[in-house]
Each structure stands twice: as structure tokens, then as C-alpha cells.
Amino acid sequence: MMTVYVFGNVPAPVIGATRDLRVLWAAEEAGLAYRVQPLDYPRGDLRSGDYLRVNPFGLVPAIDDDGFKLFESAAIVRYLAEKAGKLLPADPKGRMLAQQWASVATTTIESKLLDVFALDKFHADAAWARERRPTLVEAAQKRLADLDAYLGAQHYLLGHEFTVPDILMSAVLRLIQHTDLLDALPNLARYKERCEARPAWRKIYAAYEQRLAA
To answer: 35, 41, 116, 146 — which has fewest CB within 10 A?
Structure first.
């Protein structure tokens, strides 16, 4: 059975925004059997010899699918979709569009939101951070406004079907759930709610909260 390496504990500021959620969501949506292997960061699990043979960078998430080891959340999500034959269009052009939007999520959008997230969660009390924040928020707002306009005519990123890039994009949007940045972006706010209303997300997130609370 496939093993999914996840966080067994994380600092409070990043709860709900860790990248292992993307992989668990994809596995659940794809209907794949898997077992969860929690890793304890303070205990040094991520730097153990066993885990470094799975991910040489000592980061989460990663998987071991009967000896096939893979890390980086976007790559894993795509692999799970390919393995299950779900969550991706069947035609080559559709698959390239899926890849395009997956890249938008993990580069164009995530980079801007991560700047705001890191500032707010780890440096909020610093004078330099308060000075820097408006510039970072403005950059994030610009990207989000473009995405909001696009989603005005789209149920999901590729149309009416929920696919790989939707897992990645809605997970990325969780980086700003502590802010009011989505308040002025109704299409994007509804899109996030639509994605997170899916039973697979609700199931894995409930298990995630229970695991971190243990």
C-alpha cells in the first residue's frame, strides 16, 4: 500500500496550510488506498536516514508507492491523478491546460501569497514588516484580481470538472485565509468555498486536525 508521509505536528501558525494536505486530498479524490505516516519534526524524523532516502531534502510531503518514492506536492498530486486515471482531462491539450493552471497555482499565485503569509505569521510585530506589508499585499491583490476575473465565467479552473489544478489552487488560497484579501473578490471566494465543500477535502481535513491535536 502507498505510504504518504505527513506532518505529525506543526507550529500553530502554519496549521491548515501545510502542503501534505494537497497530497492527502488528491489521494482521497482519486480513490486510492494509502496509509499515513506522521513525522515528528522536533524529534528529528525529517532528518532521519530512513526519511532522507525518501526525500533527500527532509521536507514533507513525500510518498512511497511500493518502492516508488516521490516528493514535491505538485508532482505527487499529478502522479496520483495519473495513477488513478482521474482528475485530469483525457486529451493532450486538456492535460497541458491542467499543467498550465497547476503552474499558475504553485508559481504565479503561491509566490505572492506566501510572501504575505510568512510576513504575517512570523514577523508581524517587526517594524520592517509593517512597512513592507502594503507592497506585498498590493502584489498579491493584483494576481488575485486577475484570477477572480477569470473565475467569473468558470466553475473550476478547467470548466465544470474538478481537476488537479483545483486541488493546488484552493490549497494555495489557504495561505491568506487569515486575511480579508478575498472579501473584495467574490468569484474567488466562492471558488474556494466550492472546492472545500467537497467530501474528500472535509474527510482529510478532519483527520488532519485530529492528528495534529493528538
So the answer is: 35
Same domain, 101 and 188: yes
Q: What are phi and psi of 160, to 5 degrees?
A: -100, -5
**Structure pTM?**
0.96
Residue 16 domain boundaries? 2-87+200-213
Note whether 49 and 16 are same-domain residues: yes
Q: Which helix (H) or strand (E) holds 165?
A: helix 164-173
The residue among 32, 72, 84 whose CA lies nearest residue 168 is: 72
Residue 194 and residue 96 share a domain: yes
Partnered with residue 63 across adjacent β-strands are 4, 70
Q: Are residues 77 and 128 in the same domain?
A: no
Instruction: Give the model confidence (pLDDT) of 146-199 as tens digits.
Output: 999 999 999 999 999 999 999 999 999 999 999 999 999 999 999 999 999 999
Q: Specify whether 66 is located in the same domain as 32.
A: yes
Query: How would DSSP label each residue in 10-30?
Result: --GGGTT--THHHHHHHHHHH
- Strands across the sheet containing 62-65: 34-39, 2-7, 62-65, 68-71
